[in-house]
Amino acid sequence: MKKIILTLAVLLLPALVNAAGGGVHLDQIEVDFNNKSSLQRGMKTYVNNCLGCHSMQYQRYLRTAEDIGLSAALMKEHLIFGEQKVGELITNNMPKADAANWFGTAPPDLTLETKLKGSDWVYTYLRSFYQDESRPWGVNNSVFKDVGMPNVLGYLQGVQLNHCSAVELAENSTEIDPLTGVEIGGCYSLVEGSGEQTAKEFDRTIYDLVNFMSYIGAPHTMQSQSMGVKVLIFLFIFFFFTYALKKEYWRDIH
Ligand code: HEC
Fold this sequence. Notes:
The structure is a single chain. This protein is mostly helical. 50% of the residues lie in helices and 9% in strands. Strands 1-2 form a two-stranded antiparallel sheet. A two-stranded antiparallel ribbon has the order 3-4. Strand 3 (129-131) and strand 4 form a beta hairpin. The longest helix is centred in the C-terminal third of the chain and has 31 residues, at 220-250. The N and C termini lie far apart (50 Å). The structure holds heme C (HEC). The site of heme C has 23 residues, from helix 6 and helix 7.
């Protein structure tokens, strides 16, 4: 009995670790690395809005291009700024010491961010900036309290207001109307017309961005999936040969 309880406890442990979101309800997403256009849009958003501060220094442009279905030439033309070559790592020129002075903390490398915090956390984090005049950048964040990062996607999302206390946020951020599927109540509201995208479009932009970041954190997943399919096809064909061989061996015995 003791053994069973211990095994259960060990099995449950990772679930508990993943659930840690600073006590705030996390919105969940299903990543999809086969959706190449989502990965391409995500990378575009990343290089335009994030790369200036956050490198992805453990990944190369060329490898990324191959995986997300772009030619090296297209990658070079549209997604690499400055003098970098397609064979190089995804880095930037942000001086770490200065950055620490400007923001309080230097922006961390984000190659493995979704592995570290989970895709759900990053997805919720990027949609949880809200107006807070007491902070240096005029924004705070529900899942990362007193964050040092400015709300760089505020121009797309618009000005978001938060009507909940930390306790209410932890309980649930929104309620979905079971009949219409539309959010009701909730903690946030947007100042109308303050962003370039609608709430739905913005969620989509962040989905693509986090889908891309999740791929960067686990590029081998793509290979293992395609390898898995090949192995299954091989086994399927191999089955007929083995079966034929078995028949041949047993023919004289029956
Ligand atoms: C102007 C610089 C700047 C830009 C641009 C920027 N960030 Fe940040 N980001 C920061 C800083 C600084 C921190 C560290 C905040 C802290 O620790 O208080 C940070 C923290 C983060 C974190 C949390 C890291 C952790 O686990 O501690 C994530 C995730 C993140 N940024 C994602 C993004 C994404 C995605 C973009 C593009 C949409 C982006 N950032 C654009 C400066 C920036």
